[in-house]
Specification:
Number of domains: 3
Number of strands: 15
Strand content: 15-25%
Protein name: F-box domain-containing protein
Number of helices: 13
Strand order of the largest sheet: 6-7-5-8-9-10
Shape: elongated
Distance between the termini: 119 Å
Domain F-box: 25-75
Largest sheet: 6 strands, mixed
Radius of gyration: 34 Å
Order of helices and strands: HHHHEHEHEEEEEEHEEHHEHEHEHEHE
């Protein structure tokens, strides 16, 4: 336009006149670092993965972005990513660059089964979380400041199998929570997650939880398989206790089953599950075969699992077992023999609803010497209390003969270790006449 003096663009940005032939830096290139960081922070607020793009512009921007912790304070993880292992690389970069500041974790998950795989790489720095936000089919936010969680205090993992497609499921119910393991106790916490399937160990880094609970979703709800349970346990090598709360169901067992090494496991609790044998059995071990006695049993698989599990328990018990109660569980005859031969300190033996045969009760008789061995042998030499309840396979005559022979010999030779209390109840083949005969030897030691 006439009458208006044009000012060169480089004069507006630099405040100085340069000859047009001189090199001119782009305007944003001369901004101070503090102003650039402010601009970058607005970009990051709208798109948290922006630091990855900004640091590729130039070596100066890369150094600036990498040395600005506030730009790395939001980690967004998405289960739609085809490469789930990318999350571990992303987590390592964000947690390192955001130091020493705290950061937010945002999970965009349509499938709750991805919550644990996405979160697990971040658990080692949970003390730095400001908030955990869940979005997708369900929105949820957990403010972490009041929990004071640390990697060492997050000791328990509770996984609840739930069918999210049920009509009566409340979409407002949480998918994930943190809670003290007991009311008023704020030194150990549990991570509680509702899922529909146990995640594959391929998606998981090693987990540091020392206590694990897996609960199936009810009698008509979701069930799992021992294969998936055992595969998940391979990621939990530091476990000290494992609780499985299941429901009886007749699904065929999927194989092959992996072997799991849990060197620090102290407590194992399997409740209401038909998968005991599959979970407990270890293949190619001494004694892990069919029962040579061919005794009748209603549940041969669980019998074998109980026997193999008790064999392992006996080998690890120090001090030895003094009380053994078997309530609605059973073993093979070979396992009873193995156990009775290796419990020299057992004083009380209670067994309810066992399918054990006469061969088992006969194991309690004294073994008298033959010509080459003049030492009388006695299994469970310290046994003082015996209770047999609802053992329907036992013959009354066999019970009388076995316990009479034992009591007469121990009364005469080891009165300090003889039977002081015997209860036989609910055993259909133990008649009133059998009770009378046994009472003539045991007298008031035979209780109703």
């Amino acid at each position: 336009m006439s009458g208006i003096t044009s000012t060169p663009i480089y004069t507006l940005f630099t405040g100085a006149d340069f000859a047009p032939s001189e090199t001119v830096f782009p305007p944003i290139g001369i901004l101070p670092a503090e102003l650039l960081i402010e601009i970058f922070s607005h970009c990051v607020a709208n798109e948290p993965t922006t630091p990855l793009t900004l640091r590729q512009v130039s070596w100066w921007w890369k150094n600036l972005v990498d040395s600005s912790p506030r730009l790395w304070q939001t980690i967004i993880l998405d289960n739609a990513d085809s490469n789930t292992r990318f999350s571990e690389h992303q987590v390592a970069l964000w947690t390192e660059r955001s130091k020493p500041l705290k950061y937010d974790v945002e999970l965009n998950v349509d499938d709750p089964d991805y919550i644990l795989p996405l979160l697990s790489p971040l658990l080692s720095s949970i003390n730095r979380w400001r908030a955990l936000r869940l979005s997708g089919k369900h929105d949820e936010e957990i403010v972490m400041a009041s929990l004071e969680l640390t990697p060492d205090s997050l000791t328990h993992l509770h996984l609840c199998l739930h069918d999210f497609d049920q009509d009566d499921f409340d979409d407002e119910e949480p998918r994930i929570t943190f809670s003290p393991i007991s009311p008023g106790e704020c030194t150990n916490f549990a991570l509680n997650i509702w899922i529909s399937h146990l995640p594959s160990p391929i998606l998981l880094p090693p987990l540091r939880f020392v206590h694990l609970t897996i609960a199936e979703g009810g009698q008509i709800g979701l069930h799992t398989q021992p294969k998936y349970i055992l595969e998940f346990l391979t990621s939990c090598s530091e476990l000290e206790s494992f609780y499985l709360s299941g429901w009886p169901h007749d699904s065929p067992v999927i194989g092959p089953l992996p072997a799991v090494h849990l060197p620090t496991l102290v407590t194992l609790h399997l409740k209401s599950t038909c998968f005991a044998r599959a979970i407990l059995s270890q293949y190619h071990e001494d004694g892990d075969s069919e029962d040579e006695a061919r005794d009748y049993s209603q549940s041969p698989w669980s019998d074998q699992a109980t026997g193999m599990g008790l064999r392992k328990l006996i080998n690890r018990c120090n001090p030895p077992i003094r009380v053994l109660e078997m309530d609605f569980c059973d073993m093979r005859t070979k396992d009873f023999r193995y156990v009775f031969d290796r419990l020299p300190m057992l004083e009380d033996f209670y067994i309810v609803a066992s399918d054990m045969s006469d061969k088992v009760i006969n194991l309690l008789r004294p073994i008298f010497p033959n010509q080459s061995d003049r030492v009388v042998q006695l299994r469970l030499p310290r046994l003082r209390k015996l209770r047999l309840a609802n053992c329907q396979r036992l013959n009354g005559t066999t019970i009388v003969e076995a316990l009479t022979g034992r009591a007469q010999w121990t009364d005469a030779h080891h009165p300090e270790d003889t039977l002081v209390e015997v209860v036989v109840s609910g055993c259909e083949r133990f008649s009133q006449w059998d009770r009378h005969l046994l009472s003539t030897v045991l007298q008031n030691r035979l209780r109703p």
